[in-house]
Amino acid sequence: MNKGILDRGLQDILQAERELRQIAEGEVSALRQELVKLAYKLAGAELEEIRRKDPNAPGSWSAAQWGRFFTDQLKSTPGWTKPEILAERLATLQAERQGLVKDNDELRGQLAVVMEELERFQSLGVDAIAVEAEAKTPTVSLKWPDIPTKPPARFAPMLSRGDRWKREALVLNMMATRGWSLRLEVLEALGAMVNVAPRSGSLKRLIDKGLATNGLVESQVLTMYLSQPSKLAVLRLTDEGRELCRLLGWEPVESDWEKLIRYHNGDEQEAHTAAVLSFAFHARKRGWNAETVPDTGNGKAQPDAAVEKDAEKVFVEVELGQDKPKKWRNLAEMQGFVAICAATYEKRERLVGECKLDKIQGRATDIESLIRASEPPGPLWVDHW
User: Fold this and answer.
1) pLDDT for the residue 124
2) Strands 229-237 and 289-292, how do they pair?
3) Is 233 found in the same domain as 192?
């Protein structure tokens, strides 16, 4: 049996298991958010007061604590004085949970089918899998740059030949001319251009084992903290990579990551850097032009990002911590409102609540919501007030 087929099969199985886990974790997070929404509708003022005393609430609540909260509201809130109403809502949530369990079981069944198919291939002695079709038209609006048939002589030992060289050059072009730093963003664009799944091992190896190993691209993994730690691979051109791009006729711009390092202590604020890069990536997926650390011409406000679409430009603060009233006021004074990207739904709700108390108008989003509504992309802003 061809070892490559077995390895790819095992990778597919591991990826399927990761996706199952991500789906389950996402659904648990979604159910928790629905509880928070319901709590706000039922007793928003009381919940805000609880949050002031305990910043971790209600995200850290156990099932018993949620039960006590709803029981207290059942006794005191108009419209909830009948136990059957609460029982009906709880029954609905239980039914939704059962549906999620069923979906999870179905996915596990699909995984079992994949494993059976892999065993069938092994028993047949198949030693090749369909190769990706490289001649198809790219499915994104990016255009292929002019790429010579061979890399410059000095860099030839570091690079590949033929179509693989063209892919390497396309990655360098996107990084040099667009300043993209998030590996996933580069992979998605590259995959669309060559009609290959962006998470395929061949594309990842092209960057990690090819360009990075040969010293043309520097790669690093950053961690940001949402409901759970999330890791993002980020990229930037090395001096050698920049020189190669210039030989190819592409003058490198300062990348998103490099701007954050230079202006916002990006090396010291790893989680914040990852969050800003993630926000810019998801904004572009939704048709916005995005830049990090924009020049506002205003000494007071120094936002983390700016997004622009249909002649509308919005300066955005990416905030992972607590409310910062002075920052919100400076931003509102500059553009008439605040625009906030938080880490999670719960943190977004808290920041929005603080802005409302301070009578500051604005719009907000959060990275977890953007990730969940990424395929197909949903709206960039999920809250306006």
Assistant:
1) 43
2) unpaired
3) yes
For residue 365, the enclosing domain spans: 270-384
What crossing angle do the helices spanning 183-194 and 270-285 adopt, rounded to 10°? Answer: 30
Stretches in the chain below the pLDDT threshold 50 = 80, 121, 123-140
The alpha carbons of the chain give a radius of gyration, in whole angstroms, of: 24
Tell me, what's the pLDDT at 86? 67
CB proximity list for 308: less than 8 A, separation 6 or greater: 288, 289, 290, 314
User: Cβ contacts of residue 282 below 8 Å, gap of 6+?
Assistant: 367, 370, 371, 374, 377, 380
Q: What single letter denotes the amino acid at residue 377?
A: P
Burial letters 37-74, b for 16+ CB under 10 A, else e: eebbebbeebbbebbeeeeebbbebeeeebeebbeebe
Q: What is the pLDDT of residue 273?
A: 95
Domain closes at, from 211, 228, 253:
253
pLDDT for the residue 137: 32
* Domains of the chain: total: 3
Neighbours of 257 (CB within 10 A): 25
* 59 closest CA partner among 324, 338, 342: 342
Kindly state whether residues 243 and 290 are assigned to the same domain: no
Phi, psi of 215 (to 5 degrees): 80, 20
